[in-house]
Protein 1
Amino acid sequence: MIYCGHAIIPETLDEHQHSDHELVVCLSNNGAQLLEGDRYIPFKQGRLILIPENLSHNVLPDAPTELIYICFDRNYFNRHHLPEVQQFIEFHLQYQQYYLEQNELDLGLNLQIAERIKNELSMNKSHSQQLFHAFLCDLLIRQHRSFNLPVNHLPQDFEILQEFVEQLSVGEHWDLSLEEAAKRNNMSRSQFARKFKEFTGQTFVEQVNSLKLKKAEQLLKYSSTPLFQIAEEAGFHNLSYFHRLFKKAFNMSPKHYKEWVQHMENPIHLKFK
């Protein structure tokens, strides 16, 4: 089963969870998705946010926020004979990669699909379920293709990288160069780079930077430490490089993010009439 909806959210919603996965298509640049009470994902037009089943979440708008949501059960793509997409979803949820960066072309295509979903919802015609299935497949298959995963990608092909990626996720090996990481995994530089990208969907440098940014995000929310020290603690030894990467990922500077989070911690709650 699959169902879709269109929402314009004027105020902070109550935290909730449900038994389906949910794909959110952001139609606004304001506000954020809050996951499990402490992880903020800023909205960006065209950005896809994948929320796993039974994970508590809510929306924090700093102005009326518009989005499309598509809900589907955990085995949806296996039933529709798309095991590669099923595996793609399961991998990213396992490593808590709830949003994935896409290029401007794909963000624009996501917005076009969102508009088609809005139109379909407003018309209430026959075969809507089939169209919603096609829209969901379009969104996720393009995302899947952007990572160049092989058609017969099997988890056991990457057992050699499993432990290494888990160690990265807890802060180990962040200072390794690509050559050093390859040597640690008994691979050539080119072999390691290729297999790592296939396994994680990111290059080694992109993955490490994403983890560093996640740590910096937590420090910005819960620490009064100066920005240059936060950058150092998160593993960035070049402050301008940290600022550039953070702004690209969160659509605002570290300073503005900290101010925004402090504002969101004490929102003005309105009541629906």
Protein 2
Amino acid sequence: MQSSWQYSTIHNSPCKIIEEQNLWGNVVYRIWLPNQDTVVRVPQSALRPLGAEIQPENEANRIAYVAAAAKVAEVLEGGSHDLDGPVLLAPMESNVIPLPHQIRVLSRVISGDMVRYLLADGEDALIVRDRDWFDKYSLSITDIAEKLNKTLPKTRAYMFELDLWDDPEMYGEKRIKSQTYKRYTQKALDAFRFAVTQYSEEEMWEKHKGKVSGRIKGS
């Protein structure tokens, strides 16, 4: 029988040989996989000496990769705390002492399903805030018109009926350099769709066509 501990190339895992069997002239082994806590049967050809898969020239990089991945997981799961509070992700050989605004920005970014940016001060933080804003205010008035299957002027007529510009959950304006963006949220689109079921297009046009011609707001 081979050494009791081997490496299973099928499962990419160390394993312990429990029993050697001979089935129809073929040697097979019942092995225990500690990572899965299960017993399986594998052919002799699937087993290698435990150290055979280790390549010394690559092992240092593999260990660094595993350690870095574990550190990221620990931070995201709320671990890696010191006496003064949470420690943010830092180079392998050190920790950083986060400033309050850095904690707030990082908390916003990792509150979703996945981390989109690794943050620094200045421009990177601005990119994250801009990205968050456009994620929320994701629709232009043209987008809404297309989703309602209506012309832009008729959509604006409903827009004046709803008068939603003071509701930050529906409408927002953002200036980036010389460009001003006027955008709507998914909640605003839902409000538009409801209004379409309540008011006819002709009624809205007659009521608001003067305002639409002036294109006062939300153009």
Protein 3
Amino acid sequence: MSAPVLSIIILAVMFLLATLLPLNMGALAFVGAFLLGAVFLGMETSDILANFPGGLFLTIVGVTYLFAIAQNNGTIDLLVQGAVRLVGNRVGLIPWVMFAITALITSVGALSPAAVAIIAPIALNFAGKYKISPLLMGMMVIHGAQAGGFSPIAVYGVTVNGIMDQTTLESNPTALFLASLGFNLMIAAILYVVLGGRKIVTARVATSSSRPPRCACRRASASVPPVTSPSRASAPASTDRAIRPEPPPSPPLPHRPRPAPSASRRSSPSSA
């Protein structure tokens, strides 16, 4: 079996194991490289390590580390809030804001899956808030990540340009980046039209001010007298008596005459 076929088989097994098991794909790649070189091709350890792209590895690690710092210190959240604040109440521009932010994040070094994982929840939140199609928002985020993925300092751009430098082919990092940006921008524009973007182009967010005009406030305060609530604790005793009057006195009982003495009582004992 030839070396290219063995390389493809080892690469497929590596992706399968990394998908099914919680294993790091980079560590599996090192194992696969040493397995292919030492076992099947009979290479020495020094020859295998000589093919390791140290400069490319250092570039990818440095750019990814820079993006991790920007994510942890709140720069991404500040960028999203500032961009959404710039569009104001124009709902139709929010999908393009998500496209631009995701493209910017990937162009400065973030991996496309990482950028989508960060921006997609924010974009779907705005989609539910402003009645935008979630499918439209998701596609704008994905194509924004692909649009900036081939920047000269992005991971994919650094990888492709590093491989092209080792060949005799002519390469232009700027042309590669602009080609990817233009292609994904065109796809995003088509999806914007197809997935309902025309319905939200003229949509505006209704802003209502809870504070009335100053003249209305003055008129209202002049026409309505101030209302004060009396406090029973601070009111004098006379106020409490005026509020709660005493009950009227009960009427006197009618006079009943005493009964007259009977005839037996009026007779004296001597007459008896």
Protein 4
Amino acid sequence: MKYIFNKIGIFILLSFSYLPLSFLFLFAPFVKFLIYKVFKYRVKLVKTNLLRAFPNKSDSERFQIEKDYYQYLSELILEAVKGFTISAKELNKRIKTQNSDIYDNIFKNKESAIVAMGHNGNWEWICRHAPLYIKTQICVAYKPLTNPQFDELMNKVRCEFGIKVIPMAGIGRYIIENKNNPFLLILTADQSPSNPNTGIWANFFDIQTSFLSGLEKLSLKYQLPVIFHEVKQASNKGFYECKVHRLLEPRNHPLDGSITQTYADLLQQKIIEQPHSWLWSHKRWKHAKKAQEVSP
């Protein structure tokens, strides 16, 4: 029975995804009302995270970011629906990338690299768009979904334009097996590790925060340079502006947390520039040292 309901749900999502995004955005106020006012999706967590990140802002300023965030989240949900059937042509129209010559040089030099992203903007679209202008094999690390039907659908959609998806547990093996085949490995590295003792601590919004260790450890172990892929929502909704930054070379670099800290600093800067488009509803400070206790 669960299998049948999953298939019905997938059919409904796919049916809606054929509608123009401009039409889907008409439902954004209703989606926002549901997640923000009816289901109150992680509202308490969002308030707490905003207070931690912006303790010097006024209540009204934080409240405005909160409202803007739920507005953007409703649009992001509709973009995700559209994403099931979006064409390469439309992605090219909606995503513009500066400094993409950094990727061209990596390809010319037959290098591999790690691309660090955050949960800013529509990271799924950005990843899917990458093979449309980058010649190197694009790999995306992911955590398999618990629902096998939706996991299969999501991976099919992600791989449509040439991405290769790799479960987190298989990244090391993939790197070793492809040491002579250049690739770019995309990591959304701002998630909180399940075990803080396995993470790397960095200062993030003046809070000692545990980050996933994969970015730094993989870079140093396999001597992979780190690139930061900045994502910003454009002035028109449904459009994104990206910028590529070459951050660090791992050669003779110690495992001291500095790669993670450099990533955290740049990510924080971009969040401050456009706070509503970061994923405030995830448990970013589930593990924190000396973080002041706050309550909304």
